[in-house]
Amino acid sequence: MKKPGGLNLVSLMDIFTILVFFLMVNSSDVKVMQNTADVPLPKSTAQQAAVESLTVQITGNAILVQGSEVARLEGIEIGDTYITGLSEELSWRRSRWSEIPEEGLDVTIMAGRDTDYRLLRKVMQTCVDEQYRQVRLAVEREVRNG
């Protein structure tokens, strides 16, 4: 009497191994920044990958650092050259570094395409004053068809 045939799991294991390797290799290709406030970012055709760094986000009514509110836009005066709450937060984060690179620390600013340039300039100046001189502006990659 013959025994019924069993399941051959070798080919199934091969397929899953290939799938796991494929997912591992392709998972690190794209840097995704969390846009929690749905800020409509400007479009860009740059092909260079994003660099992870400290994130300053300008929303409709507040300035956030790594998702935590540090300043309200209503409290910022036209004549101000820097933003107090942002300056304090950046200073605290800078103090945690044992050594500041000569070129300064990295910061990425996420601001909507309709953000007032004067406000953006104040945010950038505050970052530079606090030794965050490697300023990057977050953009959405423009998808080209064809």
TrEMBL record:
Any Gene Ontology biological process: protein transport
UniProt organism field: Marinobacter adhaerens (strain DSM 23420 / HP15)
Chain ranges passing through the membrane: 6-25
UniProt subcellular location: Cell membrane
Cellular component terms per the entry's GO annotation: plasma membrane
Primary location group: membrane
Gene Ontology MF, one: transmembrane transporter activity
Membrane topology summary: Single-pass membrane protein; Single-pass type II membrane protein
InterPro entries, A to Z: ExbD (IPR003400)
Family, as annotated: Belongs to the ExbD/TolR family.
Keywords for the protein's UniProt record, in alphabetical order: Cell membrane, Membrane, Protein transport, Transmembrane, Transmembrane helix, Transport
Pfam families on file: ExbD
Record-given protein name: Biopolymer transport protein
